[in-house]
Amino acid sequence: MRRIAVATLLAVCALLSWPMAAQQRATTAPYFPERFDWQHKRPDEVGMNAALVAQAVQAATGSEMTTPRDLTIAQATSFGRDEPFDTIIGPMKPRGPASGLIVHRGFIVAE
User: Fold this and answer.
1) For 39, which of 77, 82, 86, 96 is 20 to 30 Å away at the CA?
2) Residue 103 neighbours by CB distance under 10 Å
3) In angstroms, what is the C-alpha Rg of the chain?
4) Residues 102 and 57 sit within 8 Å (Cβ to Cβ)
């Protein structure tokens, strides 16, 4: 019986605070970046833990692929010689380093 009373009290509190929370959300317009014009913010400015963001970037760059950046070499060493259709058609550019973005609510937090 006590669990039902607590659950009911929590539900009533949520219903009472919902219009106020909705009103607060309505007063701040959501940010939608323009094409090619994304704003940068520090992690602490958007409510994120800066140390954890830095740790995520470190983990991503630290686990970069170990295959050669020259994709002609990577292609030649990853397929067997007797594979059908193993001839490269067209140029192959070298691949770049690890890349990525951390975006939070439309703001670039890390890249």
Assistant:
1) 96
2) 14
3) 25
4) yes
Residue 42 has which token pair?
């520090």
Other beta carbons less than 10 A from residue 43's beta carbon: 19
Q: Output the 3-class SS for the chain.
A: CHHHHHHHHHHHHHHHHHHHHHHHHHHCCCCCCECCECCECCHHHHCCCHHHHHHHHHHHHHCCCCCCCCHHHHHHHHCCCCCCCCCCCCCCCCCCCCCCCEEECCEEEEC
- Arithmetic mean of pLDDT, 21-34: 66
Task: Using a cut of 0.70, tell me whether the model's pTM lies above it.
Answer: no
| Contact by Cβ (8 Å): 105, 28 | no
- Spell out the residues 6+ positions from residue 106 whose beta carbon is closer than 8 angstroms to its own: 30, 31, 32, 33, 38, 39
**For residue 72, what are its two tokens?**
């002609």
Q: What is the pLDDT of residues 84-99, one digit of tens each?
A: 776 778 888 898 888 8
